[in-house]
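Researcher: Last one for today. Full complex below.
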Amino acid sequence: MSETHYQNELSAYINNESALERRALIAAHILQCESCRDQHDSIKLVAALGGTLKRAEAPADTWNGVEAALAAPRRGSTWLDLRILAPVSALAILVLVASVIYFGWLRTRSAQVAVNPAPSVVAAAAPQPTSPGPSVTPGYPTPVAPVSPSPTVSAPSVTRVREVPAAPLRPPVGPTTVAVASGSFSVETMSGAPTVGGAVAGDKLVVGQVLVTDAGSRARIEVAAIGQVEVAPNSRVRLVNTSATEHRLSLERGSLHAKILAPPRLFIVDTPSAVAVDLGCEYTLDVDASGNSKLHVTGGYVSLERDGRESIVPAGAFCLTRKGKGLGTPYFDGATPAFEEALKKFDFENGGAASLAILLKDTGAEDTLTLWHLLPRVNAGDREKIFAEMIRFVPLPDGVTREGVMSLDKKMLEAWRLAMEQVWFG
Amino acid sequence: MTEKSIGPELLAECRFGNREAMRSLFVLHQKRVYSVALNFFGGNQALAQDITQQVFLKLLTRLDAFRGDAEFATWIYRITVNACVDETRRLRRFLNFGELFGSFEPRVKQNADKRLQSEQVADEVQRALKTLKPKFRLPLVLKYVEDLSYQEIAEVLQCSVGTVSSRIHRGHKMMAEKLGHLKDQV
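Model: Here's the assembly. Have a good evening.
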């Protein structure tokens, strides 16, 4: 297993800022390394959320403030920064105010000392009680009024026209979905009359719209510049999102065939029972009226995911899902009907030990795909039995131990799976 | 980066003091200035408007300083970025008052029942972004709001592409820690 990780390059990779040769290396690595894949998904989430940050027009009266400031008298022809002038001016005003108060107090006191008037005379000369603070002798300016900005402060100042936002930050979008990015895919009618949004399909499928085919129609969707999806008859496909970081469809019913040439995890198809994440591949995905799905991969890999579980389905393999019951275990298309039936019972009908016994009987090398996926899905006793069967076909590679496999060490399991690929694909 | 290029005639008219030309220049570029400021300051519209006015006032009174060795848009972004950073420093001096009396940043009235889910997510992203240091926040704003390339961001921030790449990545990781719970919202 490669020891080189690319976590520090994943942001650039997701933002299409990596050099081509690096992209290829990183894409290949993500397929193998769960740690980098987790990091990739986490950064991709942030990149997608970054798409919610919107541009906005400045409020209509913004220019008025600029124009007013431009028209304001300026000291000479030099623009002095407010950030320098403001503190200096504020300090000057404070000194001025303090001086006025101090000298006012001093003068009053001097007068008191010199003339020694009766207290009633001083009271009559003082301001009304509504002005708290030190007494100010008439004839001196009051310390409050001159606080208005001096000419050096006001010229040229920016006029803030609006203090409190009155409008929402951005126009509202759909009530249940986050419009990470808007966009559309090109659509081509292959036969019959597919519809989009209830009308005869044009040449676009916009985010949020549903493409529907009846028994006599088929359509082809261009997935940005990364591939094509053919929609079979009696299908409903919604365009969920298209952006630099993700192209996402939802197959609500029917069948589609996808052929994608892109970095892993860029193209995703939701179904009612699982999410199919493209790892650079070609596949057919069927969804029946109950929301159950069947995936058949014909090139590359697809990751089927649901509730934190993942089935990595390689070319030549199938994987089933059942709505409400979860994700199935992948199996190669050469499996016997008995094997398929036992797996179905094990995955969705609590087949337990009886089903497992059939799965472990007369296994072939390709069945290690299924057995490898079963390792974390069984108890320790059954894991021993599965391990014993698997080791007959694929020896443990360097660095992988029986104990590691039995304790479900992720790195060791991944390394062993890579070794199995040699057996699966010769 | 050239959303709409500015012609030398318009620039010359602005330098001459032609108010209509100045207004045209404002109309051409106000959106990028306001958008960067708005998202930099967590959606604070009043502050973003203030920054926009500051930037254009500065720009229109210093047009002679634009020598044309960079794109005009780069120059505007640079002034905007500097204004945002300066304002952040200025606000930091008054932080204690803000903490004492609650945030002085006006926000759109919260009404969880009526607000749309998407708006809540977008607000949460803006709030998370605002907690980042400016050196991590700015490249993310320029990337996701203005859709600039790493090279263009490097020109605006006057640093290397490697630095931009590193800061965006660190910003991503910090944001991921704050926004991981939104996984199901996207």
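Chain A touches chain B through 55 residues (CB under 8 Å). DSSP finds 13 helices and 16 strands in chain A.
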